[in-house]
Amino acid sequence: MPDTAAPDQRFMREALAQAQLAAQFGEVPVGAVVVKDGQVIATGRNAPIDGLDPTAHAEIAALRAAAQALGNYRLDDCTLYVTLEPCAMCSGAMLHARLPRVVFGAADPKTGAAGSVINLFGEPRLNHQTAVQGGVLADECGALLSAFFRQRRDDQRRAAHTLREDALRTRDARFAGLPDYPWSPNYLSDLPSLAGLRLHYLDEGPRDAPTTWLCLHGNPAWSYLYRKMIPVFAASGARVVAPDLIGFGKSDKPKKEGVHSFTWHRQVLLELVERLDLRNVVLVVQDWGGLLGLTLPMAAPARYRGLLVMNTTLATGDTPLSPGFLAWREMCARNPEFDVARLFARGNPQMSAEECAAYNAPFPDRGHRAALRVFPAMVPEKPDDDGADVSRQAREFWRHDWQGQTFMAIGEQDPVLGEPVMRALQRDIRNCPEPWLLPEAGHFVQEHGERIAREAIAVFGR
């Protein structure tokens, strides 16, 4: 019995060449050839988009070309090779052509009519029987299709989040291989306040979880700051949502500093909570995550059941900002291009060089750093500054109307928003218990986050 494997692979490679040609024209990469007496007599590639023809499948094109070459619509003694299992239309055409043999590459579990969905070739009541062999170079044929559809999905995602001309977007390669940050990105660009800017957020765990941990970062951090806490929260069966503020992380970065304001960033967060329909929320805040985040619950108190608050404040404009913060603001003004990685390394000697460098990933150059430059100056200092009035309203809410549980953790080495500032905030939060003190932690308390997260789960589970 002759060995047909070698010729079958050779002719399937010619069909693959036709499939690659189809991909170059933006068509689903399927190719076909018709062979008679060991010679290719016709070729065909997918072209329904180019030809505005729903019947323009690779097999149909090859059958038509073969019939013209032979001067006969009956293709006796011919074999058709196609890179994807034929559909019902093409299978019917092959049977009408009286093809004695069909060879295909990858199976098609959605529309395949040679055994995957149905098997027209195995129907004994039809007046012609065609022999079918599948799986020839199936991996290569399938890989070509997979790569095509993967690229198309990527293109569709990019098209759905078109980059505005007045913004920058950090390349994905900057975030590749970051230590302990394995989560898939999620994006929104259709919130009214975003006006087309793309907002990135992590969203882990079941959507109907009994608790949602909403983790808000500050300046100059991003959602990477919560990498030690997210696994602990998620392992408890909770949902965890951690957005990157616009200008930070994987979110878009407006080129102009004037785009940023307290009111605008707060509105983005309010709309995000509504869009994701977050319920049973434990609000997790630190730094600017608290400046903004502590103003959110009063807008929808029923959504929130708890507060985990770390090294932050309410900037109400009627009390002086801390000397540590004023020194930080002055440093940022003098040195707007400060090294973010060095900042984290200085306050967190336990961090690896790779972890520190990850905080620089969103900011490859000066153009991507507008938010870092403007955020220190955005903290409300006077009663009529943007954000001061809503912060005073929030203070009244926390003093008199807050009904949920509170867990406060303080990094005592923080020179900016350390224990004195947090003790003042504690007095402004109704029923806030004695804080959990971390003598070894600095401003970025989340770098000790695994212990804090475990304690928080215990607190809110009581």
Q: TL;DR of this structure?
A:
Helices cover 36% and strands 16% of the residues. It contains 15 helices and 15 strands.
Could you describe the 3D structure shown?
With 462 residues, the chain is α/β, with parallel strands linked by helices. 36% of the residues lie in helices and 16% in strands. The chain is built from 15 helices and 15 strands. The strands form 3 sheets. The chain has an 8-stranded mixed beta sheet with strand order 7-8-10-9-12-13-14-15, sandwiched between helices. Strands 2-1-3-4-5 form a 5-stranded mixed beta sheet. Helix 6 links the parallel strand 9 and strand 10. Helix 1 packs parallel to helix 5. The chain is elongated and about 95 Å long. The chain starts with a helix and ends with a helix. The relative contact order is 0.09. The mean pLDDT is 95.
Name the features.
36% helix, alpha/beta, single chain, 5-stranded mixed β-sheet, 15 helices
Strand content: 15-25%
Strand line-up across the major sheet: 7-8-10-9-12-13-14-15
Q: What are the segments in which pLDDT stays under 50 over at least 5 consecutive residues?
A: none
**Straight-line N-to-C gap:** 76 Å
Elements, N to C (H/E): HEEHHEHEEHEEEEHEEHEHEHHHHHEHEH
